[in-house]
Amino acid sequence: MVTIPLARGVLAPECLPEEELADCAETALGRDGKTLLSYGPAAGYTPLRELIGQWFGVHPYRVVLTNSGLQGLALLANHVARGRDVVVEYPTYDAALKLLLNSGATLLSAVLDGEGMSAENLQDQLIGDLKPAFVYTIPTFQNPSGQTMPEERRAQVVRTLVRREILLVEDDPYALNRFEGEAVPAIFDYYDRRSIYMSSFSATIAPGLRVGWMILPDDELASALTEAAATTYITPSLLSQAVVHEFISRGSFEPNLRRVNDLLKARRDAMAAALARYLPGASWTLPEGGFFIWLELPGGMDSRQVLKRAEGVTAVAGNEFGSPAYMMRLAFSSVSPEEIEVGIQRLAVACELTAA
Predict the structure, then answer these.
(1) Residue 334: which residues within 8 A CB-CB, separation 6 or more?
(2) Residue closest to 229 by CA, chosen among 75, 339, 39
(3) 151: which strand partners?
(4) pLDDT, tens digit, for every residue of 75-105?
């Protein structure tokens, strides 16, 4: 039996533009191979920093490229959050929880309420003179819940933070993976001088390129994190960053994104249809984009026990994200619609075994 992976949020092989990227790599190496294959600036490939700076209307000095978005979060955890309080939304990205806890940060939770982080609950966490290192949020197609914070809620969060001059970390890897509905402005657009905006090209081009970026609020923090990056890995992968720059510069990014989002929508729809068919007693989110559906199992079933009994399918139990165990994260991004249906059917069998 071949295992169907519904655990990891990663683009399926057919989403990856391998031929175009191969041509981009050949072009980049032919143009500047000796530079790209050596050490370079710790902040990353300068032309790509300039391009991202143009996208966001900031000086490229504020842009720091990293070996994936997670590397950027690791730098923040170790050099900004270490030993301090950090407010995170709950549930939240499991890797973020581990990085922050390993840094010695004390985590305070602001719950999700269906529209992202609760502004009221965030205010409750900021009692007295408490000033955390930062507030961490994934406001668009949140991992694991798939929720998107509406514009008014984003403004409420900013009003809460601006009075206390508290730093916000906006982790936004999925915002461009929208396949229906209206786009919502990034929180960065309201709060750019007290926020760190993080994203990557893993969900829009290819995860194996490992190209992420951060936009820092000022030169001082950009310099500090660049120095931290240099002492961690000397230089990021300049070749991968040059390939991304070439891919965007030749006009391939937007048509590829449309193609990827069409493929993702078909997978989301296949998962929703399979859940309705095989798990009618369950409830779940139906995100307008991103990679994940957040499943509430019927009858308060323990997702850990369901996954122990499941044969030929993987997913992630809700407790990994700080959520009750009756929740489960399902990634629809990495396998075909046909495989998704089989995977959900196998999960339904495991639920029946658990309930028996």
Answers:
(1) 5, 6, 8, 9, 10, 11, 12
(2) 75
(3) none
(4) 999 999 999 999 999 999 999 999 999 999 9
Q: What is the mean pLDDT of residues 257-278?
A: 98
- Tokens 């914070």 identify what position? 149
Which of 184, 222, 256 is CA-nearest to residue 52? Answer: 222
Could you tell me the residue ranges of all domains in the chain?
Answer: 4-15+254-355, 19-249
Give the per-residue pLDDT at 93: 96
Res. 51: pLDDT tops 90 = yes
Fold of 4-15+254-355: Aspartate Aminotransferase, domain 1 (3.90.1150)
Query: Which residue, among 95, 105, 103, 52, has the nearest Cα to 70 in the 3D structure?
Result: 95
227-238 average pLDDT score: 93
In sequence order, which residues have a C-beta less than 8 Å from that of residue 72 and are 6 or more positions away? 64, 66, 198, 212, 213, 214
Tokens 């658990």 locate to 354
Secondary structure of the chain in the HEC alphabet?
CCCEECCCCCCCHHHCCHHHHHHHHHHHHHHHHHHHCCCCCCCCCHHHHHHHHHHHCCCHHHEEEECCHHHHHHHHHHHHHCCCEEEEEECCCHHHHHHHHHCCCEEEEEEECCCCECHHHHHHHCCCCCCCCEEEECCCCCCCCCCCCCHHHHHHHHHHHHCCCCCEEEECCCCCCECCCCCCCCCHHHHHHHEEEEEECCCCCCHHHCCEEEECCCHHHHHHHHHHHHHHHCCCCHHHHHHHHHHHHCCCHHHHHHHHHHHHHHHHHHHHHHHHHHCCCCEECCCCECCEEEEECHHHCCHHHHHHHCCCEECEEHHHHCCCCCEEEEECCCCCHHHHHHHHHHHHHHHHHHHC
Q: Are 169 and 195 in contact (CB under 8 A)?
A: yes
**Annotation: CATH topology of 19-249:** Aspartate Aminotransferase; domain 2 (3.40.640)
